[in-house]
Amino acid sequence: MILILFGPPGAGKGTQAQILVERYNLKQLSTGDMLREAIKKGSDLGKEAKSIMDKGELVSDQIILSMIREKLENAEREGFIFDGFPRNLEQAKSLDEILNKLKLELDLVIEIIVEDDVLIRRIENRVRESKDARSDDNAEVLKNRLNVYHQSTEMIKPYYLEKNKLVQIDGMGSIEEVSNDIESHLSVKVKQ
Ligand code: AMP
Fold first, then answer.
1. Quick one: which of 177, 136, 176, 120 has its CA closest to 53?
2. Structure confidence at residue 140 as a pLDDT band (50, 70, 90)
3. What is the mean pLDDT of residues 100-126?
4. Active-site residue 145, yes or no?
5. What is the CATH number of the domain that holds 26?
6. Is residue 133's pLDDT more than 80?
7. Which 3 state secondary structure label does DSSP give 164?
8. Which atom of ligand 1 is nearest to the CA of 83?
9. pLDDT by residue (tens digit) across 63-92?
10. How many domains does the chain have?
11. How many Å lie between the centroid of ligand 1 and the Cα of residue 59?
């Protein structure tokens, strides 16, 4: 099974991805995690990405797509969950090409919908409560990340709607409620 978890920053994509990884034995491919790993290693790619991430802007498609290509080509498992990717139409189209070449097919794009003011409150709590808050977790950068989400990332929705691949989930409930809602869509998919 190949899934995309889609939604604004702070919507709970990472948490839901982890639940799905365990339930369906999928490999999670989070481009944000890959970039943070590159920053930790101090690689050239990490250095280039850090200043962009700290502003809440999108890292270049070239960097993102080469990371994804490398991970997919070297992965043994055939089930994947993309988290934080694709983030614009160019990435979405390129993902289709990459999957095509590998004879893989995307099953479903799961959009987790949360209102902006709730997201801002969630991230503010994350900053207050967490020792390991990320360097891009602050109110100003978050507002920019939300702008980028509404201006670029949301533009991929019609692309997947047209392909009949998009399902929308209310992300305002508890972790369990959201997870059950996702599950109800996937059990239909698995039975097909
Ligand atoms: P995330 O952990 O998914 O919230 O990503 C953190 C930051 O990494 C984003 O604000 C972007 O700067 C960068 N990033 C992650 N994934 C992508 C992507 N698919 N395309 C471009 N930039 C990305």
1. 136
2. confident
3. 90
4. yes
5. 3.40.50.300
6. no
7. coil
8. 3
9. 999 999 999 988 887 799 999 999 999 999
10. 1
11. 7
